[in-house]
Predict the structure.
Amino acid sequence: MTPPHDPSDAPTAEPAEAGPGPHAGPALELRGLRYRYPGAAVDALAGVDLAVAVGESVAVVGANGSGKSTLARLLGGLERPASAESAVVCGHDLLTDDGRMAARRDVGVLFQNPENQLVAQCVEEDVAFGLENLRWRPDDMQRRVDAMLARFQLTDLRSREPHLLSGGQKQRTALAGVLAVPRRVVVLDEPTAMLDPAGREEVLQAVAGLRADGLTVVLVTQEMDEVVGVDRVVALEAGSVAYEGGVSGLFADTALIRRLGLALPAAADLALELAARGRSLKPLPLTLDELTTALEASG
């Protein structure tokens, strides 16, 4: 792993540690956020209001075309809002060029196709890519890369070419690269959509670790089993917020679930099937463990 610059030119200050760190106010606050793609007849986001606290985990759900991925790109500073009363992420104003550039430093975005984020010849170099661009000192960069490889169980794969990795390994490598640069917010845009069950489980375990570390996490997904366990869920419909609140509240409104074109978690779906056969379980179980406990309690 060779830095693309003269080490004597590198910054001499100690790099910041990963984690949320001190930050006044919410991690992100959006009011009246709008975005329209060039040539489109309607807004992809039509006046979204959303605030997420530092350290909170929020799932954003909705059918295809609801605006989920557009929101993810805007949060990462990758697109400019068409308009907003306020669009602030980690204290950076997304309505300005400087604010969006600063947001890209504090907000890490992981997309559904990991191959779009793997650019180097081996895993180790991919994880180091962002740090090299920020001109970290070689010793600090190596320590940070080693820590990320260990954290995401990639140490034994450090010399492996990315195209030889499994889907789960590729996504973990991409996530390690995103988090090698210390972040405040992590936006995960359908990170398991292209993975088989084994790869999906690998990535979900890694995501659980982000929440445990206190990072602010925005999880964009259509997989309702992935929503269970987040602090709050936001459902989008045609670019607007159709629901914002607790996970159980969303799944309790089966009419809304149908209208939004969403599914229930597998455990909740099975519980409703049992209820239709006369064995009602209250409250509605959302995980297999909750379903097992409810069945045992009901005799």
In short: Residues 2-23 have pLDDT under 50 and may be disordered.
